[in-house]
Design a protein that fits this description.
heterodimer, A: alpha/beta, Rossmann fold, Alpha-Beta Plaits, 2 domains, six-stranded mixed beta sheet, four-stranded antiparallel beta sheet, 10 helices, 14 strands, B: mainly alpha, membrane (chain B), transmembrane (chain B)
Chain lengths: 296, 534
């Protein structure tokens, strides 16, 4: 047995003829915060539902703390805090009632921290759930999940309805979780959030994991964009391999992107052309994401 | 300005019809087909001489009048008169239910789901949706009425001329419109869809009770209720159109009230404001069963009242039944030779009817397992430290307990109201035995609901269809001489007719075992399957 917190091995999930997940693999180690990104319908929520034991994998196995996610669900849930993608709440209960219910169903809770979180998220727990907006329903799930004493946090787009202020409160709480050495799986469309919080990113597309690793590793696989101005003519650059989207702007600066492994060579070439101005930007997660999704 | 309020109406009307086209076609042909299909059956049944007299006397007793309404045209009891007598009230109620569903779905439910907000953001008028709903209801009720009328007219039986047939259809259509408009009013007042449905069905129930009391004792009460009014058309006997005019007039007034209320409120709110609640959960909210009890408590209490009032209403006519019997030489003769009175005979029928009425909420409580899942609520619970089994039993156990309570309330209702008006009725113990004898049948039907939840979670409403069949087989089974095996397809057909018959223990034991077996299999099935997400 290894010590991975989450271990997904060759998991396939079929719904009738449709293959929602196609042999995915994923691991999370103790203390890691893993961003889980991919377009709508790629299989993020299906993966998370398998991890939470809501649905069973057609093939392969999903383990958390070395136990089976489907068979040992009840036992595992004592140590997992979860925020679902769609937070559906009973319309005639209040937010406060639901938070208490959730915490009692997990046993073990932190009353003082719960009140503090309600305060920090600026949440009114006395209103009936049917009157809450999406963001407020997410706050219910977040407060319940964060004030639970858990070792693993599985969060499915937890901030998609939050305003920027609340988003930063969320990031703050995540940093506290990280400090405490907890493990987090964070599915999100807000790439700046993933970039800010996560040590590791896993990208899923059409039911397959297409990329997984630390942000640095992933950046290595893509292009760096460069803006450069030189005294000498650069037109012959077009011929160099690994250079893309080359264009000149009205001020005479040259814009292009370059594959990371070609970077050294290109800089060397530019150096011999009397550089007057040079800007070199590593790819943002956004560019990374786009580059993976545009090309089929 | 006024034109603006209704802008976009014709497109929305088409949208409503488009969304409901299959559902509405099934409702319309279902109702018209059912009403027409019973014409030859009733004709045959009332064909033979002496039996008709007995049957007619039975129909005129207060218990039957309370259930299906008064007998008209007894002197010359044609097939038409018999058909209207047996069928009009039931078909009108089914039409009313169709309308309640139609209006609630397209007003408050759409509003709750946020669909109306998207529509209202387009250049359409503020009253447009409600007006389109009412307009659709009017068209649908018109089509339903005419279809039913023509279907009936195909038979050309005695007393069933075209005018009468159309009047029958108009009765269904107008009462349907009344309840549609009433639902539209509730949709403005209440703050959510659940309450709209609750208020609408409650008023259907109260109008039924009002009519029952009115028909047996105080005629005026029947005239307040559209269900009573529609019977005053004396369809196929006198063919009065004035009650239809009154019902339509009331529907128009209710529609206008709904539109006026809609002008005065904001989208998403009700005229009755939502109160702030507690900031912390009470002790009940600490287990899945505590949650299920809290969620179902209002419905349980309301249904307990409904069951008790229903039973008490039937019980209150036992006195009139005595009197009726004393004055009826023919029926006295028939029952003189047996040990059982007419009251006993009717108790068996009434207990069966009451049990099947109580089975409606029982199924709905059980089906909550599945509706919690569809709404995404179950996911919230099951991702905490709660097993599938615990979730299943959290709804199963209250359902079983409530079945027992309903049956006891039925017995109590009969006894309390009955003993106040008659000395001839059985003891409370006998009532309790008669109603508890139906519990094994409840176990089977809960078991069937459980199997659907476990293995066909998208089709849980089939349990209601099975109950509908049970009602048909038990209630009309004798009348249309249904083959014995078809009567035995329903658990309610296997219960002894106590106090007329001895209670046979064996079928009850078998049904109990069957019910337990079905529930055991379904709880395992629920544990092993994927959760459903909408």
């Amino acid at each position: 047995m290894n010590n991975s917190i989450v271990e997904v091995k060759d998991v396939t999930k079929r719904f009738g003829k449709f293959k929602a997940l196609d042999g995915i693999n994923m691991t999370l180690e103790q203390g890691e915060i893993c961003g889980f990104i991919g377009p709508n319908g790629a299989g993020k929520t299906t993966t998370i539902r398998i991890l939470m034991g809501m649905i069973n994998a057609s093939e392969g196995r999903a383990e958390i703390f070395g136990k089976d996610a489907w068979k040992d669900a009840v036992e595992l849930h004592k140590r997992i805090a979860f925020v679902p993608g769609d937070v559906n709440l009973w319309p005639n209960l209040t937010g406060g009632e639901v938070i208490d219910l959730f915490l009692r169903l997990r046993k073990g809770k932190n009353k003082k921290y719960q009140e503090e979180l309600i305060d920090r998220f600026d949440f009114n727990p006395r209103k009936k759930c049917r009157t809450y907006s999406k963001g407020n329903r997410q706050k219910v799930a977040l407060v319940a999940a964060l004030s639970a004493e858990a070792d693993l946090y599985i969060l499915d787009e937890p901030t998609s309805g939050l305003d920027p202020l609340m988003e930063s409160v969320f990031q703050e709480t995540m940093r506290e979780v990280k400090k405490a050495g907890k493990t987090v799986l964070l599915s999100s469309h807000i790439l700046s959030e993933v970039e800010e919080l996560c040590d590791k990113v896993t990208i899923i597309k059409q039911g397959k994991i297409i990329e997984s690793g630390s942000l640095e590793e992933l950046r290595h696989l893509t292009r760096t964009s460069i803006v450069v101005k030189t005294k000498e003519d650069l037109t012959e650059m077009k011929g160099i391999q690994g250079i893309y989207e080359l264009q000149e702007d009205e001020k005479g600066s040259l814009h292009f992107s370059v594959e990371s492994e070609m970077l050294g060579e290109v800089i060397q070439y530019l150096g011999s052309r009397q550089i007057t101005d040079l800007k070199c930007m590593p790819p943002t997660l956004e560019e990374l994401f786009m580059s993976h999704y545009k090309e089929v | 300005m006024y034109k603006d309020l209704f802008a976009g109406g014709s497109i929305l009307t088409k949208l409503i019809m488009r969304r409901d086209r299959i559902r509405l076609v099934i409702w319309i042909f279902g109702i018209a087909g059912f009403v027409a299909a019973l014409v030859p059956v009733i004709k045959e049944f009332f064909a033979e001489g002496d039996e008709v007299r007995v049957m007619l006397e039975m129909m005129q007793n207060p218990a039957m009048i309370a259930i299906i309404g008064p007998v008209y045209g007894a002197e010359h009891y044609t097939t038409g008169a018999a058909h209207a007598n047996m069928m009009l009230l039931f078909s009108v109620i089914i039409g009313a239910i169709m309308n309640i569903f139609l209006i609630a779905r397209h007003t408050r439910q759409d509003e709750e789901l946020g669909r109306l907000e998207i529509i209202r953001a387009l250049p359409v008028g503020r009253l447009c949706n409600l007006a389109s709903c009412l307009w659709t209801a009017l068209c649908i009720n018109g089509i339903l009425g005419v279809t039913t009328g023509y279907a009936l007219n195909c038979f050309r039986e005695a007393g069933m001329d075209l005018g009468g047939c159309m009047l029958f259809g108009a009765g269904i259509g107008s009462v349907g419109m009344f309840f549609g408009a009433l639902t539209a009013v509730f949709a403005q007042i209440s703050s959510n869809n659940r309450k709209v449905m609750g208020f609408s069905f409650l008023s259907l129930f109260l109008f039924y009770i009002l009519r029952a009391i009115g028909d047996v004792k105080i005629e005026e009460l029947s005239l307040i209720s559209p269900l009573g009014l529609v019977l005053r058309t004396k369809t196929f006997v006198e063919n009065n159109w004035w009650p239809i005019v009154i019902i339509l007039g009331m529907s128009i007034i209710l529609s206008l009230v709904a539109l006026l209320l809609a002008m005065r409120r904001d989208l998403g709110s009700g005229l009755i404001a939502e109160k702030e609640g507690k900031s912390h959960g009470g002790g009940l909210l600490s287990s899945p069963m505590g949650l299920s009890l809290k969620l179902m408590s209002t419905a349980i209490i309301i249904w307990m009242l409904v069951v008790f009032i229903f039973a008490a209403m039937y019980g209150s006519i036992f006195g009139d039944l005595d009197e009726f019997l004393a004055n009826n030489a023919l029926l006295m003769g028939i029952f003189a030779g047996t040990d059982f009175s007419l009251i006993d005979q009717f108790i068996t029928l009434l207990v069966a009817v009451m049990s099947m009425i109580a089975a409606i909420p029982v199924i709905s409580f059980m089906n909550r397992i599945s509706s919690e899942e569809r709404h995404g609520y179950a996911e919230q619970i099951l991702t905490k430290s709660v097993s599938r089994g615990a979730q299943f039993f959290a709804y199963l156990i209250p359902t079983l307990a409530v079945s027992v309570v309903f049956q006891l309330l039925t017995a109590l209702g009969f006894y309390v109201a009955g003993s106040a008006v008659s000395d001839e009725i059985p003891s409370l113990k006998q009532f309790v035995q008669a109603s508890l004898a139906y519990l094994p049948a409840f176990f089977v039907i809960i078991g069937v609901a459980g199997m659907l939840i476990a293995f066909l979670p998208g089709k849980t409403s089939l349990s209601y269809l099975y109950l509908g069949y049970s009602f048909f087989a038990v209630y009309f089974g004798e009348l249309i001489k249904l083959p014995e095996w078809m009567k035995k397809l329903t658990p309610f057909g296997h219960v002894s007719r106590y106090p007329v018959e001895e209670i046979k223990v064996l079928p009850l034991v078998i049904m109990t075992l069957l019910g337990v077996g079905l529930l055991a299999i379904s709880s395992i099935g629920y544990r092993k399957r994927d959760m459903e997400f909408s």
